[in-house]
Amino acid sequence: MGQSRFIVFHFVLLLCSTCFSSSFGDQNLDKITELPGQPKNVGFNQYSGYVTVNEQAGRALFYWLTEAPSNPEDSYVFLVKWFERFPQYKYREFYIAGESYAGHYVPQLSQIVYERNKGVENPVINFKGFLVGNAVTDDYHDFVGTFEYWWTHGLISDSTYKRLRVACDLGSSTHPSLECMNALRVAEVEQGNIDPYSIFTQPCKDAATLRQNMRGHYPWMSRAYDPCTERYSAVYFNRPEVQKALHANVTGIPYPWQTCSEIVGNYWADAPLSMLPIYKELIAAGLRIWVYSGDTDAVVPVTATRYSIDALKLPTVTNWYPWYDNKKNQDHEKGGFVPHWHKPLTYNMIVP
Ligand SMILES: *[C@@H]1O[C@H](CO)[C@@H](O)[C@H](O)[C@H]1NC(C)=O
């Protein structure tokens, strides 16, 4: 079924290799808004219509495209179409990278690309592997490692640590149980006003600080992380001229752009508890995987990543060794540690 859908997509894409660069307007005209007999709110979009293939001879072919409803499928269709729009990138070595919740969608998309490439000689998407940073990987081990990080960094009390372990350990991190939510709320209050993405950085404060920061970064962190980045980006990407320049928001969405949408989060149904089965499949397939983690993030901490990756029980092939950002000068700056587990999976820990 999946395979035949792929062929259909591909067929459409071959027909359309030039039409995708035309406006979304054409797409919207082709959208099937209502099909007699079809139940309402089917949860996927359908398009059909004619694509002119020879204007002079008056030849046009008809297509009917059904967009797959699930998320990695959508991302895969996006990739296929993107390569049609940028054919100069076809057949080049291709990696997928992301951080945080991308710990889910990067491996999921990688799995689809790998499976669709299976048996294809010289695939268009010449997929080699993926990279994830501070990645949500396995709910159980992530929870264990996250609570441990909070506790060992003095962010929560002993009793809250115990309460979290009892209330949350076996649940889903995307949709925690009520008891777990309550324990998480207590932990949040105890953590206080910190930047959870960088616990030793001053948190982004008020509008005055924001304005001041807009003119320049903190002098003591010229090249480092700016805790107001998230706020700047929400201001910047909502500017109409920025959206226009980026060809974004062409449909005039009735609400503003956010860095992390609560609406999307609350309705997120597609959240498997673990990505480890996908890791196993892709490691066995010989794909390259690089897992790295900054050790000042309390949201998806390095301890969470270590427990999750350890759960794969991979053999160690290289001992833990320090890694410098300037190889020639070891006095320079220690960039992190590199435990090298299994050939196709490299793990890297980054210290500031
Ligand atoms: C889209 O644009 C409209 C203005 O045309 C704006 O009001 C809205 O906030 C924007 N939404 C997003 C998601 O960017």
TrEMBL record:
Signal peptide positions are 1-25
Write out the entry's keywords from A to Z.
Answer: Carboxypeptidase, Hydrolase, Protease, Secreted, Signal
Q: Which GO terms describe its biological process?
A: proteolysis
Q: Give the E.C. number(s).
A: 3.4.16.-
Q: Which domain of life is it from?
A: Eukaryota
The keyword ATP-binding appears for this protein: no
Q: Does the keyword Transferase apply?
A: no
Localization in the cell: Secreted
Q: Which family does it belong to?
A: Belongs to the peptidase S10 family.
> What name appears for this protein in its UniProt entry?
Carboxypeptidase
